[in-house]
Amino acid sequence: MSAQPIQEILSQLQRVKKIAPDKWTALCPAHDDRRPSLSIREADDGKILLHCWAGCGAADIVNALGLTLADLFPRTNRYNVGEARSVHRVWAHREALQGIAHEAIIVRLFIARLVGCAPLDHDDLVRLALADERIGEALRVAEEGR
Ligand SMILES: [Zn+2]
Fold this sequence. Notes:
The chain has 2 domains: 5-77, no CATH class; 81-144. The chain contains 4 helices and 4 strands. The protein has helices at residues 5-12, 58-64, 80-115, 122-144, and strands at residues 17-20, 23-26, 38-42, 48-52. A 4-stranded antiparallel sheet has the order 1-2-3-4, with helices on one face. The model has no long low-confidence stretch (mean pLDDT 81).
């Protein structure tokens, strides 16, 4: 593959049409496409962004072309594939922690009310149950990202 993956990708697609300097449409190779539903965009760093309006995943699309997701990155930036994944993981962790921190504030507010002998009403209990649910969800996200 050349240093510019966009040329390689476009040469393998059918009914390619340029709609902007860095944007094309083509028939999606991953499903039985009759009107071009694949959008192709070349990012500033040479990375190729694929989007099928019928819902095919980028991995399905490159597989149908006999390529891999790594082929969507310029050869000089191949390490970015792994890098992008680890950055995503760090963010998922951070968001999970922020979510827990936020829910902890809610719980603390309710506890302060109870300590001040102000009873919780039905809405409060619903909100507490939601806090419990969100903390559990955040923990699952953090667990998966490990
Ligand atoms: Zn498709």
